[in-house]
């Protein structure tokens, strides 16, 4: 399991006052097809990373994610990046589409994907550009159907405030 930190600035509004808080995405689980991150305040990141050194804490965090998804699945935000997004334009062949993906890869595929998902490139920094290139190829070759991004609602008071799951489906 790899632990990676990506810094993302976010504004958090409370009922009492608007507070600008720097938050960071910390990867709590990652394999070839799936990444799960937790959003924590920047000042709590180091402690959270230390806590994640304990496998029991990682299991507890993953259980929270699964529990949150099951309890509130109808409230989760879910985005799919599928063949319609990967093809860029209707009616082109897979061979041409793969060439288009190769051309896009020379630019910023993350920005391209983000524009379709409308969730911002920062959320897509969870995966390296190569992972997205490979995913686009897998979609075009019909090895997978899409890349699914799931953001369940706030799991409750305290941190992490947000969990994100990115997976190939």
Please outline the helices and strands.
Blueprint: E1 5-13, E2 18-30, E3 34-41, H1 45-51, H2 55-71, E4 77-82, H3 83-86, H4 94-106, H5 109-117, H6 121-124, H7 129-140, E5 146-151, E6 162-168
Antiparallel strand pairs: 1-2, 2-3, 3-6, 4-5, 5-6
Helix pairs in contact: 4-7
Number of strands: 6
Average pLDDT metric:
70
In whole angstroms, the N-to-C terminal distance is 20 Å
Order of helices and strands: EEEHHEHHHHHEE
State the helix count.
Answer: 7
Strand composition percent:
25-35%
The main β sheet shows up as:
6 strands, antiparallel
Write down the domain tally: 2
- Taking Cα atoms only, what radius of gyration do you get, to the nearest Å? 17 Å
- Trace the largest sheet across and list its strands: 1-2-3-6-5-4
Q: How much helicity do the residues have? A: 25-40%
- Shape designation: elongated
Low-confidence runs? 1-18, 88-92, 117-121
Structural class: alpha+beta
Q: In words, what does this structure look like?
A:
The structure is a single chain. This protein is α+β, with helices and mostly antiparallel strands and 169 residues long. It folds into two domains: 5-76 and 153-168, no CATH class; 78-148, no CATH class. The chain is built from seven helices and six strands; from the N terminus they run βββααβαααααββ. β2 and β3 form a beta hairpin. α4 packs antiparallel against α7. The longest helix is centred in the middle third of the chain and has 17 residues, at 55-71. The protein is elongated and about 40 Å long.
